[in-house]
Known about the structure:
Elements: H1 28-31, H2 35-60, E1 62-66, E2 81-85, E3 100-104, H3 118-129, E4 139-147, E5 151-154, E6 162-163, E7 166-167, E8 184-187, E9 192-196, E10 218-219, E11 223-232, E12 238-239
Amino acid sequence: MDTEAPHPTRGHSSPGKGEGRPRVAFPPSWRRLSWPALSWRRAGVLGIAAAVALLLVSEFLVQPFLIPSRSMEPTLRVGDRVLVNKQAYRHGDEPRRGEVVVFDGTGSFVREPARGDAIGEALHGAASALGLAEPSDTDFVKRVVGVGGDDVVCCDADGRIEVNGVALDEPYLYPGDTASKVPFRIVVPLGTLWVMGDHRSQSRDSRDHLGEPGGGMVPVEKVIGRADWIGWPVSRWGSAGGGRTGGGHG
């Protein structure tokens, strides 16, 4: 009786060659591509993914905003890119006096814009959201001087703005500027803001819209976010001047 087990039959392939190694099958179109082409394709995919991620961050968390004018000098200069905190007022908080905010001025500072090229507007909006292009003509950056219920007056005997009978200390004003050459007295309606630029002689702000519908007031719901930090250029890194002003209540 034969007690030995029969030897297994080996195939014709040589032992140890190619056994147990997974084989990767590239699509036929990829087989014709050189490695440099594959690297460029991978770089393109990574670039698109990074841009999408930045757009999502810009939409919901922090948006870069390119400063296009001199209206907020010396706090913000032309070409600065400020980081706008879009979560600052989404949890019940509202803008406070002295904070620098970015807002949509449609209906308060500008009329409803005429519809143009939808694709061009979308591309410009994406570039603006990434801080690569100037903001929309309807977006503005200003400092909050009065909030809902405030009695704002310009000016007292010393040329200072008063809020609820208390003179404001405004160290952020552009050197040589007065608080305002335009006298006014307004009571800010609830749910709105009275805003002004730091470079008062170069700023078109709430004062310039007193006689228009809305009286220059910016609805709180139109505020995009609070300008917290200057992100570019590197030499300008730091706070965007969002401190409160003195005076008034609240």
